[in-house]
Amino acid sequence: MPAVVVLLTLLLLAGAFTVSQRDRLAGTATDRIFVVANTGGEGVCLRRTANIDDKDSSICYEEGTRLTSIGPDETGAGGTFHHIRDSKGNTGWVPARYTVEER
Predict the structure, then answer these.
(1) Same domain, yes or no, for 13 and 48?
(2) pTM to 2 decimals?
(3) Per-residue pLDDT tens for 18-69?
(4) Which residues pair with 51 in a beta bridge?
(5) What is the DSSP pairing of strand 74-76 with strand 91-95?
(6) What's the domain range around 15?
């Protein structure tokens, strides 16, 4: 019986590792950090969807704000967008052109 538990645990860990590696290779790892930049000092507002016109003007970020990736980038109306979460837990999309990736 313990051998079955060990085998199942190893299979689960191998699957999680494979997904993590796939995401990293595809550039969709959720541990990416983006910093708001290139806005000319105006900042950027969160979008509800990956669409430049779907702006939530009540949630905007100043240059230098750190945002955490929560999924893969998406190309939508207006370019490429990062799927992010801010420090307050708000989630949505920001245009990639207004961010730089923190290294």
Answers:
(1) no
(2) 0.71
(3) 444 444 444 445 689 999 999 999 999 999 999 999 999 999 999 999 999 9
(4) 77
(5) unpaired
(6) 1-27
